[in-house]
Amino acid sequence: MYKSILVPIDLANIEKSKPMIEVARKLGAEGSRIILLNVVEEVPSWIANELPAGILEKSSQTSRSELKAMANAAVIKVEVEIRSGHPYKTILLVADEVGTDLIIIASHKPGLQDYFLGSTAARVVRHAKCSVLVVR
Ligand code: ADP
After folding, report:
1. What percent of the chain shows pLDDT beyond 90?
2. What is the CATH number of the domain that holds 123?
3. pLDDT 10s digits, 56-94
4. pLDDT at 115
5. What is the pLDDT of residue 59?
6. I need a labelling partner for 11 at 20 to 30 A (CA). Which of 63, 81, 100, 104 fits?
7. Tens of pLDDT along 102-115?
8. How far is the CA of 83 from the centre of ligand 1 (A)?
9. CA separation (Å) from 1 to 4, 24, 25, 109, 131?
10. Atom of ligand 1 nearest to the CA of 116
11. Atom nearest to 122 CA in ligand 1
């Protein structure tokens, strides 16, 4: 059983989030930490300067409420974490910080999933120090 499970969620593709949380429930033990993570992608400063004030903070808040709603709907206790940065680097960073022993990630390009892993999933699989489970 895994003690600390990180479940990165891409809010643009949430159809796999329930099965991912279900896998975390099955592979976790009583008292395991399960963390849902969304990474809000950073935009280059020259673009950020052109955006209306507060829009990036609003985007983080929206992500937090969406993940909280997911966490509330889950049958198990899960924590919610929002970070900003590059998705795969930030997923690996949080996994290291937390001391995660399993990352559960999805791969969902319709029609391609039997052949390819998406770029985030592939990079996490390649570079993670812990086990990674890919939900299809
Ligand atoms: P695909 O190319 O198959 O659509 P990606 O490799 O982009 O997939 O994403 C696969 C998985 O990577 C997502 O289901 C999610 O688990 C994780 N992921 C991608 N982007 C993010 C993000 N911004 N925040 C958290 N997790 C992400």
Report:
1. 60
2. 3.40.50.620
3. 788 888 989 999 998 898 888 999 999 999 999 999 999
4. 61
5. 83
6. 100
7. 999 998 765 555 56
8. 14
9. 9, 10, 10, 29, 12
10. 3
11. 6
Query: What's the token pair of residue 26?
Result: 């099955």
Domain count, the chain: 1
CA of 124 to the centre of ligand 1 (A): 10
Give long-range contacts, CB 8 A cutoff, 24+ apart: 109-114: none
Domain range holding 59? 2-135
Q: For residue 16, which atom of ligand 1 is closest to its CA?
A: 14
DSSP state letter for 135: E
Element (H, E) at 45: helix 45-48
Is the predicted pLDDT of residue 116 greater than 70, yes or no?
Answer: no
120 Cβ closer than 6 Å to some ligand 1 atom: yes
Our answer on whether the CB atom of 95 is closer than 6 Å to any ligand 1 atom is no
